[in-house]
Amino acid sequence: MTLGIIGLGLIGGSMAIDLRKKNFADHFIGYDNSELNGMTAQRIGLVDEILPLDELIAKSDLIILSVPVSAAIRMLSDILDKINDNQYVVDVCSTKEKLNDSVHYHPRRKNYVASHPMAGTEFNGPWAAIPNLFAGRAGIICNAEDSDAKAVELVRNMYDSLNMRIIYMRAAHHDVHVAYVSHISHVISFALALTVLDKEKNEKNIFDLASGGFASTARLSKSNADMWVPIFMQNKENVLSVLDAYMDKLSQFKTAMEQNDEQALRNLIEDANRIKRILR
To answer: What domains are there in the chain, each with its CATH number?
Structure first.
């Protein structure tokens, strides 16, 4: 099997490392709109060769579309136009509903699998690719009934090779859930970093005092804008809803402190501690 990877950054590159290790495919080819990314990916062994986009599409049995979701929406229909009945496409984008809807009536819709591997770091580019990034994480397949059974099975095998847990979900439900567990975390981290950077103009020692708690909370603020702006815009309705709920909780903390209400603060913190049942 020939595997084509469009987008050779953290996710596409990390998938290439582990899929090659597991002999998932015989030949790995890649395309990236950055010539530097493409050359780097080939030089460090993520792919065997870099090809023009149309040539990659023609030669690949399975195509992994690993680009920002705004680019994926522009590209997916065109890719489906160019493949044959025995070729399949899977995307790995962080939002699903609008991407899925964009090809709902495409004649080759069944050759496409909407998916999202729930893994990542704050780094980007082929040099950020690492082994075992996906091990133990959830591999989500959305609207599987709209895809050919062979396509779904191939993607299942791919995620099995990455040691992922398969979860089936509707695209709309996926976007609601990731707004809570992923997208809001990034908004908070970006906002925290901006707040501290503004303060740092007047208090030069603030970063000398930064502890592990700050570092872990602000880590996501190093994430790439080219990736996250499209995610926020494509999932805007859900993210805005979660932001409203989050700001309500912030307001409760603010009010409790303004009113010197220690019991209210304690209640909020102990209520938040229930997350221990979910995150161990």
So the answer is: 2-169 (3.40.50.720), 174-277 (1.10.3660.10)
